[in-house]
Each structure stands twice: as structure tokens, then as C-alpha cells.
């Protein structure tokens, strides 16, 4: 079972599991595509969810977002029912931000991690860096803007650094963890290259054969917007470096180069 299956990562995970011959089901909240089950994890129907989980040996919890209620309460509800339903393995998709970032989002992910660790079934907490690929709301959305618009908006000065992780690398790792009976308790995963936002923009422009005007949004304006609406947090992520692996933290690297990953994105955009 995969939660968040109508989202970017969850959708790719479900597709990958099915392609690898697994009997996988997807759980979603905000919309139900063909074959997806519907459930609001913050207000669950315990009996219905337990019936959905009947016979499930592994659950991949990829549902989450900037809403701490979903990250904490939703995770707690899901863990309770998984324990009752006899789920043997729980894979939780956290965030690399949870390691040391000081934000409400990172804090909610850390609290959710503690909940997962408190249950007796075998678990793995995966902390990926920024994940990109077809359908993501950051790099893919940026590529669509470059392809379709005469103007592209750049957060801050565009020189903040990233380690983007291609979604297929993440999916392959999660599938391998599902099949690994010595599942690690924690797994940190980052992209193979450090790049700035402007380097990503220039690469997308070259591959898409576009040359839009760059409109840089001042950091102070973005931070003010975040105070008004949490939905702007995705934009504010462009205002800091997210590439450093802290001392003492072990991280594994994805195998797909940024150029190859961006090329796949551009194929989907055209």
C-alpha cells in the first residue's frame, strides 16, 4: 500500500511498484484516479482503513506536505491502524530537511519520525533531498514556465544551491528496501551533484530552446508572503542552500545525473 498515491512521489512509486510486478495499491485523499482508494488520514474511518490494509505486508507512507496535521496526526492514525491490521513493514518518506532545518515543516517531519520509531514493526525512515521529475511542483514546474511563458520567476538571486534527486532513483531504492529483509532504520539520500537554481534554469532553457526574461523576486517579498500563506513555502525554499550533508550524517547518492534527469523532464514538457 502506498499513501499519497495521487501526488508526485506517490504516483511515481505506485507506477514503479506495479512495473516491478508487485501487487500494489494506492491510497489518496484529494482526488481518486482509477484504481486508487480514498481516505483522509487526519479523520480516518478505522474499520474501513483496516479493511483496505487487509493482507498488506508493507506500507509506504508518502502522503505529507506543509500541513503539520497531516504529517503528525495523519501519520499517528496510520500507524495505529497498521499495527492493528498486522502490517509487518512501514517505510516512511520524511525529508532531508528533518535532519537539522529549523522550520515548522521540518519539525513536523521530525515528530512524525519519532512516532514511527515508537512502533514495534520493522520500519525505515527515508530522508530524500529535493526530489524532481515529471509532475513535480518545483523543477518540472519551472521547466513548464520556461517553455510556455516569456518570463520566468527566480526566487532571490538564484544562486542558492541544491542537490536534486531524480524520482526514479528514489523509487528504485524504496522498492529495494521493500525487498530487503534487513531493512535499515534510517536512510538519507541526496542527488549526485550540487547546483544553483540559475544553473538549473540555464540547463532547462538550453534543452527546451527557450530564452525567457528572468524576473528575480526579492527575498524580503517572498518571506513576507510566507507569513501570509503557508502555500508560499515552496517558493521560499529557493532562499537558502540545501546541499550540505551535516557532519556525522551518512548519505547515499542517486545515480542519475542532473543532465539526464532534466532531459527526461524536457521530453515530458514538450
UniProtKB/TrEMBL annotation:
GO molecular function: protein-containing complex binding
Gene3D superfamilies with a match to the protein in the record: NAD(P)-binding Rossmann-like Domain (3.40.50.720)
Coiled coil (residue ranges): none
InterPro entries named among the record's database cross-references: ComplexI_NDUFA9_subunit (IPR051207), Epimerase_deHydtase (IPR001509), NAD(P)-bd_dom_sf (IPR036291)
Pfam families the record matches: Epimerase
SUPFAM superfamilies recorded: NAD(P)-binding Rossmann-fold domains
Residues of the NAD-dependent epimerase/dehydratase domain: 1-188
Protein name: NAD-dependent epimerase/dehydratase domain-containing protein
Native organism: marine sediment metagenome
The organism's taxonomic lineage, starting at the top: unclassified sequences, metagenomes, ecological metagenomes
Amino acid at each position: 500500500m502506498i499513501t499519497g498515491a495521487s501526488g508526485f512521489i506517490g504516483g511515481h512509486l505506485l507506477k514503479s511498484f506495479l512495473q516491478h510486478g508487485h501487487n500494489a495499491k494506492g491510497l489518496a485523499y484529494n482526488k481518486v484516479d482509477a484504481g486508487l482508494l480514498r481516505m483522509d488520514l487526519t479523520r480516518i474511518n478505522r474499520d474501513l482503513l483496516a479493511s483496505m490494509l487487509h493482507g498488506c505486508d508493507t506500507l509506504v507512507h508518502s502522503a505529507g506536505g506543509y500541513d503539520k496535521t497531516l504529517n503528525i496526526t495523519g501519520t499517528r492514525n496510520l500507524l495505529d491502524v497498521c499495527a492493528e491490521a498486522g502490517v509487518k513493514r512501514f517505510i516512511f518518506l520524511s525529508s532531508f530537511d528533518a535532519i537539522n532545518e529549523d522550520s515548522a515543516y521540518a519539525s513536523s517531519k521530525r515528530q512524525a519520525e519519532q512516532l514511527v520509531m515508537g512502533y514495534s514493526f520493522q520500519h525505515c525512515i527515508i530522508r530524500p533531498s529535493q526530489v524532481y521529475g515529471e509532475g513535480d511542483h518545483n523543477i518540472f514546474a519551472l521547466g513548464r514556465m520556461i517553455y510556455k511563458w516569456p518570463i520566468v520567476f527566480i526566487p532571490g538571486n538564484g544562486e542558492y544551491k541544491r542537490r536534486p534527486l531524480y524520482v526514479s532513483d528514489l523509487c528504485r531504492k524504496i522498492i529495494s528496501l521493500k525487498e530487503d529483509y534487513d531493512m535499515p532504520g534510517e536512510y538519507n539520500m541526496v542527488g549526485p551533484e550540487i547546483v544553483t537554481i540559475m544553473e538549473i534554469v540555464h540547463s532547462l532553457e538550453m534543452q527546451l530552446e527557450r530564452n525567457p526574461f528572468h524576473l528575480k523576486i526579492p527575498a524580503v517579498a517572498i518571506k513576507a508572503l510566507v507569513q501570509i500563506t503557508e502555500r508560499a513555502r515552496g517558493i521560499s525554499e529557493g532562499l537558502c542552500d540545501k546541499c550540505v550533508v551535516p557532519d556525522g550524517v551518512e548519505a547515499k547518492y542517486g545515480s542519475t545525473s542532473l543532465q539526464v534527469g532534466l532531459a527526461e523532464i524536457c521530453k515530458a514538457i514538450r
